[in-house]
Model the fold of this input.
Amino acid sequence: MGCSNSHAECINFDVLDPPVNANFKNTRIKTELFPEGEIYYLRNYKELQKDNIPKSNSKGIMAYDGVIAELSVEYKFSRKELMHEFKGSVIKIYHTDISLDNEFNYIGSTEEYVDNDLLFKKRFRMYYCFQKLQIIKIEIDINQNIQVVNTSLGNILGSKDLFVELPFLYHGSHKDCSVIIRGVVVKDENKNSFITLNLITDLSKLPYSDYFVVISNWHHPRRPQQVWKSAEIPGTESTFTAQMITMQDLCLGNDNRKITIEFYGIYCGLVGKADKTLAQLNEAMMNKDKIPIISEEGEEKGYFYISYTIEKISRFIDLIENGLQIKISFAVDYTNSNLTYTNPKSLHYIGNPDKINPYENCLRYFGELVGSYDFNNKIAMLGYGGIIPSTGETSHCFPVSLTNNPYVKGIDEAIKQYKKSLPQIVLDGPTYFFPIYKENLTMLKEEDGNCPTSIYHLLIIITDGTIHDLDEMKRQLIKNQDSPISICIVGVGDENFSKMYQLDCRTKPLEDKNGNKCGRDLCQFVRYKDFRDRPDKLTEFMLMIIPSQVEAYYRAYPDKFIGLSDAGKPKNIYIRKIKEEQEKEKLKANKTKSSNKKSTIKLTEKEKEKFMQEKSRDEKEFIETNMPLIEN
Done:
């Protein structure tokens, strides 16, 4: 899911139409109309009708890359006689997106249960969206006795075996009956197939200038929709490379759908275009034919040669299905600018049960959403900028529990520890991020060595002020860009967060003071007050980029991914550990072999003569000493 070389992961997940072309004569094109290097992921809402997905279910929900999950439901009983008692019961499925104010939408109902098969035949489909908490309500109707249990789509797809078991109340007990809900992703090869196009262009008939290319599809029957736009390249003979466009976005996987390739000059506007299908482009590539660039007036302004390659790449949801876990770490700001927790104006204030402070809000929403993608549901809770009681000194990285263990089980325990820590920690300062980041790198290495599948870390730093180690943080982020970690920074309060935006890689690559640039997008910043009334929208905005960051990382470092086999066991179990053990054994064998080798040092004649004399003397001495004992 990349785009141009310079902005490989600057991705916009919205559907935007390109501007209508106008007369740009003697006027430079406003480049903001064509954001460089962005891909516009298109949503084909006809899929709703094809897959029988209710319109109410899709309202207001923008799925991640149009991924559809298929759910199945089954009973599980501890006693056989219950199978007959449940005969005729049905299960109804409802769904809500937490950003829709918990209004549940009806998805569908199973057929009536018969006692010869615990699995219901009917399947239910819904769009999957990583950045939203998608709640699923399961209503079990047993002879008009209705029981309700809830889960989330993230819990199902993020679980190790892609299912959750939910006990429900029957005859006063939760031990005898449960409902199992399983999820699978409906595969679409067009979304896993990526095409890279190379356009070798000759515009020598035109004056020297900067030119760029826009590629559009015709998913809409009456107007094109932009898929990719190149960087501006000076000169009239250039090669434009459109990288990693999905076949779904380009032509819906159909070789005979029209594609428009437009060439623009920054001062003259539209130079010309070529309307071709992928089949025609393939024929031109095989025959090495020139493809003319035709202006709106019908004149040939130049030509280009084309070559392309298509490859299949795992998407985010494929990685999740294959065992990828996302570990979440929180870093809470204990600097004195927050004000003490007993002050009603404090950002840490916990005296009003009807009003949740911004720190707790962020913990709740991020934790509930991302925690689904960790098999163990472990959350690391760290603090910085406060004086801790064990040392009486300011610490820039410490467990919120004030013990040696930074981990908690689940978000409720995390919030409990956060509130418990407030009376024990003296707020101080300044604000340093690097110690927190360094500790997360250490935890990452420790967990990675003990986990049979791959782990991607998400560090969420909540802060109320400016950063005092900005240059060092930039340097370390660039240095450790090959680590599987993304950073989300939430700015609470009304401070000036201008320095924080320098860490944000969403629009341009991160760069340190020495000119070194980060090769991937791994850090985002957002102000809490922009989403004060809708913290669910904050998580949505912040996390919408995470899937593409995860994909980009494992695309760049494919050897670092360890998934699950079809049997649910880790592929190449502990492959890294095995390799390390093999290397150690090999090194140990070489050392043993070398120690057992006989000396091959060549001696000179004098040294040899001296050696023989010493050997003869030693033998004589040995015989004289031991011969009497031997004879006796």
